Each structure stands twice: as C-alpha cells, then as structure tokens.
C-alpha cells in the first residue's frame, strides 16, 4: 500500500487564473521522507494542501493510506487523525502556552484534560521543550516555536507529517534541529512530506521531487529505504 | 469588547427598569386590589373596550348581598379617591371600612389609628409623608377638603405607602360619593371554586364584572398597554445590542482569521468553530446581562428613593431577572450567529495566509 498517491492531479485557481498543479502523478511509500523542491509558485504548497485535505483538486485523485482524500466527507476528521501539519510560520495560537498549543488537536477527540496535558507534555519532552511548556509563543525563539509546532503535529499520532517550508524562518543551526526532528519521525514509521527551498532539508530526505510550473520535472532517490 | 458588554448591559438594564416599573405597578395594583389575598375583584361592568384607567363604581349594598352567597368566605369593599395634588403627583385615598384587611396590613408607625366617628381624619402613607414633608398633626388639603393627619402608616407596598387611608363612611360623606364603592374584594372559601363563584356573581348581578386582581390591573386600568410599551422600547434597545455584539464578534473573527485557519488545519470541525465564536458571544452577553441586571435594579432603587410620591417598586421580581438574563443570552446567540457561521466557512488555506 502506498502512503500517499496522486493520480493525474490538477489544481486550478480560477480567481487567480493560476494552474498550480498539472497532471501530477506521485506515489510515496509508508516511512518515506520526501522533499518537494522548486521555485516559488511551482505548486509545492498546493501539493501539500491537497494531500492534507485543506483543499480539493480540480481534477484527479488524492489518496492517503487508502482513503480517497479528494472526496472525503469529513476533511476535518481526516486531518485530525491522519495528518500533522508543520507550517513555515510556526502558526501557534499566541494566547495559548506551548503545552496548550500542543493540546489543540486533541480537543476534538474528546480526551480528558488530564490525558491531553500528559500527552502534550510528553511530546514537548520529545522535542526537548518540556521546560518551556508554560511559555507563550511570544516568549519562545523561532526554533523553539517550530519545535512546538512539530510536537503539535504529532499530537494525535498521525501516520503522515506535512511540513511546508519548516525551516524558512530559521537560521541554519536551528533549521538543522528541525530537519533532524523530522528525519527522526521516519524511524517511527511515519511518512514525511516536506516542501522546501532549503538544500540541507532536501539532502536529509530519501527522495527529492522537483516541481516547476505545476509539473514534476525531476525525481532523485538519495537513500534506499 | 467592552463597548459590547456596555451595550448589552444598557439594553438589559433598560429592560429590567422599564419592565420592573410597569410590571411592578401591575403587581402593586393587583395586590391592592386583592387586599389580603382575595381571589376576585368585583367592579362595575362596562361594554367591552378600553376604560383608560377609569375604575367605575358599584353600589355599597352589594357587599352584604355578596356575603350571603355560597362559596364566599370574605367580602371587603374599597373606595379609591384619586386626587391630583400637583402636576407630578397623583395621590390616592383608600376608603376602607373598619376591620378591613388593608388596615391590618398598614402598620401605624407614628401617631394613632383611625377612630370611629372621625370624618376629616387621615392616615398618611410613609412615602407620601416623606415626599410631602408632612407629620402627624399636620393638615392636608385634598380635592378642596382639609384633612388632619392623625397617623403615619407603612404597608410595604409603595403604591399604598404613597397614598392615604380614610374610613370608608367618612370618605363617602366627605367626597360625596353616596352609597357607592370602587370595587369589592371577594375571598372564596376554596380557590378551586373561584371560577364557579365568579360565574355565580356575574349571573346574579348583571351590572358587575368579576376579575382576578391581575386582570383588574392589566385590563381595567389598561396597564397591559404600559407593559407592552415597555417591551417595545426594550425590544429596540435589545435589537441595538444584538447589532453591537454582531459587530464586535465580526471584528473578532476578522482579527483572528489566521487563528481560525490554524484550528481548521489541525482538524477542528466547522461546527466546533461555530461553537467557539458563539461561546465567546455568550460569555460577552452574559457579562453584559449580569451588569445590566445590576444597572436595572440600581436604577429602580434610585427611582424608588428619589420619587417617593410615585409608586416605583422597591424590588424586581426574580422571574423578571431570570428572563432578563435569558434575553441577554439570546442577544449573544443572535449577535454571534452570523460571525460564527462566517468563521466556520473560512477557507483554511486562505485563512492561514491572513496577517
């Protein structure tokens, strides 16, 4: 079974008259770490949004773990249980502490407050931030915020992690920490799909896919699983 | 945010104050009409229609005739002499017979009670005495007749305490009303018989109408119109506060577009987003509602203290306060609904791009 499967996926934004993706076919195996590279506007983010059910393709099919995402009736439920997002701008809620931000995806699952807190603290510990649990995002550095975002992405133990320019706002050292964190997720059996400009991120991946003008123009396998 | 809470507080405050006054007046008149708990009020029958506060009169002889009817435990007549003392003050003299429940309720706090054979003696209500600066031994001119204040009483009903009590016979004689009284309170032997007694009285005496004390206040004195007017004014104020809440919540949603995008991205459902925004609107309106109840009750107390010659109620009925709070919550739901729906329909990708 493939973890992620795109069949002739096209995405058009009529309002902007942009064809963000054109006839893209892609298969990602479970546990793969795939970097999607390409210039700005090449369709990297759109690809991640379609895989994460944040958006629907204009034509074609997107399948994740056997679920046809492009027509899923409850995309919120799908995102909640199957996907963890990490964005370029960490996207933490500024009024919530680090641990509360990590708890956010657990809230709709109806977990008890105590269980949520325990799991969130455990996840913060895994990204090395247990001591910063009660800090607000404004009190955290860029790297720390992004690590909180990684912990939040893992909140509901999803099999797929989607990261959109996760190091875009970070210096190379802190960016390197995030790359190591993401690469480490592979060993847990998770599939990781990263859109990036950063050659170091791409170098850590098992496969690099290059997009240009909405098409896959190159594909390189760096590591055999 | 604060402006919204203030808006809800003012509208709920106005509702509590306006309905407190109008419903309070209905309640007070109903209590005066019921004396000490009588179930029925016998008044002159008019053709259907508005009477604009005119109570009418019934023959005093009816009192003894009613006493003889089965199912009736007590009968007590009341004569109302409304007398304008100044432009602002309508002063009511209650003419009551000796042994009337009104006299039992009116506790004499200064001077003495009424004595038999006194024609120009008046017991003055405490609020009226304070408002007019009168004391025991002073005189008061009502409708051209000079009365001597022999005592000051307090019954606890602002309407009664803002008036005066005279002996029924003396009042009839002095004000020339002959044998007539304004209304007769009837206490039935068993409350379950009230309907039957009412029909029996109306069948036997075609010239009278038998009302409940509440209907007497609402229908005969047309105070229902005042209650409805209070609702109408409150309604406009409440509508404005709905708009204020809607505006605040719409701004909040706009300012937090990205946060809502984050919640949608991590898997929160659209229904949960609706709940989040509505919940916030409810917290806001509940805070405004509580503050408004405080404002309304405070305003009524202030009115009661300042205008001692007007029958402003001292307290607001608990049911009115509960209804006012529920109204505040209703304002929150109505004001929050559209912004909540709008928030739930945000496109997560677009929302995440918002600054």
Please give the radius of gyration of chain B in angstroms. Answer: 27 Å
Q: Helical residue percent of chain A?
A: 25-40%
The percentage of residues in β strands of chain A lies in 25-35%
Low-confidence stretches of chain B: none
Give the SSE order of chain A as H and E letters: EEEHEEHEHHHEHEHEE
Poorly predicted sequence stretches spanning 5 or more consecutive residues of chain A: none
What's the number of extended β-strand segments of chain B? Answer: 12
Number of separate domains of chain B: 2
Question: What structural category characterises the helix and strand content of chain B?
Answer: alpha+beta
Shape of chain A: globular
Major beta sheet of chain B, specifics? 10 strands, mixed
According to DSSP, the number of beta strands of chain A is 10
Helix amount of chain B: 40-55%
In quaternary terms, these chains amount to heterodimer
Cα-atom radius of gyration of chain A: 17 Å
Element-by-element helix/strand order of chain B: HEEHEEHEEHEEHEHEEHEHHHHHH
The biggest sheet of chain A amounts to: 6 strands, mixed
């Amino acid at each position: 079974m493939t973890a992620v499967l795109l069949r002739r996926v096209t995405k058009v934004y009529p309002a902007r008259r942009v064809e963000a993706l054109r006839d893209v076919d892609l298969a990602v195996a479970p546990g793969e770490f795939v970097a999607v590279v390409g210039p700005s506007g090449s369709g990297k983010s759109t690809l991640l949004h379609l895989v994460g059910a944040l958006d629907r393709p204009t034509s074609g099919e997107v399948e994740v773990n056997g679920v046809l995402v492009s027509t899923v009736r409850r995309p919120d439920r799908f995102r909640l249980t199957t996907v963890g997002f990490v964005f370029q701008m960490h996207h933490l809620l500024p009024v919530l502490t680090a641990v509360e931000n990590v708890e956010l995806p657990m809230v709709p699952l109806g977990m008890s407050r105590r269980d949520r807190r325990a799991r969130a603290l455990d996840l913060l510990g895994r990204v090395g931030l247990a001591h910063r649990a009660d800090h607000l995002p404004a009190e955290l550095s860029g790297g720390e915020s992004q690590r909180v975002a990684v912990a939040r992405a893992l909140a509901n133990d999803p099999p797929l992690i989607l990261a959109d320019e996760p190091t875009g706002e970070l210096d190379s050292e802190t960016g390197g920490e995030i790359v190591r964190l993401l690469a480490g997720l592979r060993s847990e059996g998770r599939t990781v799909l990263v859109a990036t400009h950063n050659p170091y991120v791409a170098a850590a991946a098992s496969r690099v896919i290059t997009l240009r003008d909405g098409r896959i123009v190159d594909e390189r396998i760096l590591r055999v699983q | 945010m604060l402006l919204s809470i203030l808006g809800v507080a003012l509208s709920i405050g106005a509702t509590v104050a306006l309905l407190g006054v109008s419903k309070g007046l209905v309640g007070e008149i109903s209590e005066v009409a019921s004396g000490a708990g009588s179930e029925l009020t016998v008044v002159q029958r008019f053709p259907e229609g508005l009477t604009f506060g005119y109570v009418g009169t019934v023959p005093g002889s009816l009192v003894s005739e009613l006493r003889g009817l089965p199912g009736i435990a007590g009968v007590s007549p009341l004569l109302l002499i409304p007398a304008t003392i100044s432009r602002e003050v309508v002063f009511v003299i209650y003419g009551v017979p000796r042994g009337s429940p009104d006299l039992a309720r009116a506790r004499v706090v200064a001077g003495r009670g009424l004595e038999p054979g006194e024609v120009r003696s008046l017991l003055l209500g405490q609020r009226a005495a304070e408002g007019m600066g009168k004391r025991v031994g002073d005189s008061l001119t009502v409708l051209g007749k000079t009365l001597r204040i022999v005592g000051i009483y307090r019954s606890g009903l602002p309407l009664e305490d803002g008036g005066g009590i005279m002996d029924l016979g003396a009042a009839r004689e002095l004000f020339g009303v002959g044998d007539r009284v304004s209304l007769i309170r009837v206490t039935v032997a068993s409350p379950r018989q009230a309907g039957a007694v009412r029909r029996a009285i109306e069948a036997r005496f075609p010239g009278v109408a038998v009302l409940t004390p509440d209907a007497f206040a609402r229908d005969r004195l047309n105070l229902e119109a005042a209650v409805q007017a209070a609702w109408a004014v409150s309604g406009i104020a409440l509508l404005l506060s709905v708009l204020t809440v809607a505006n605040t919540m719409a701004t909040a949603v706009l300012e937090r577009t990205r946060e809502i995008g984050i919640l949608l991205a991590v898997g929160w459902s659209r229904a949960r987003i609706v709940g989040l925004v509505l919940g916030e609107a409810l917290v806001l309106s509940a805070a405004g509602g509580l503050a408004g109840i405080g404002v309304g009750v405070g305003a009524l107390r202030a009115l009661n203290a300042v205008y001692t010659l007007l029958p402003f109620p001292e307290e607001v009925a608990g049911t009115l306060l509960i209804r006012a709070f529920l109204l505040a919550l209703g304002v929150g739901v109505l004001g929050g609904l559209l912004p909540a729906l709008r928030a739930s329909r945000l496109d997560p990708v677009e929302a995440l791009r918002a600054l």
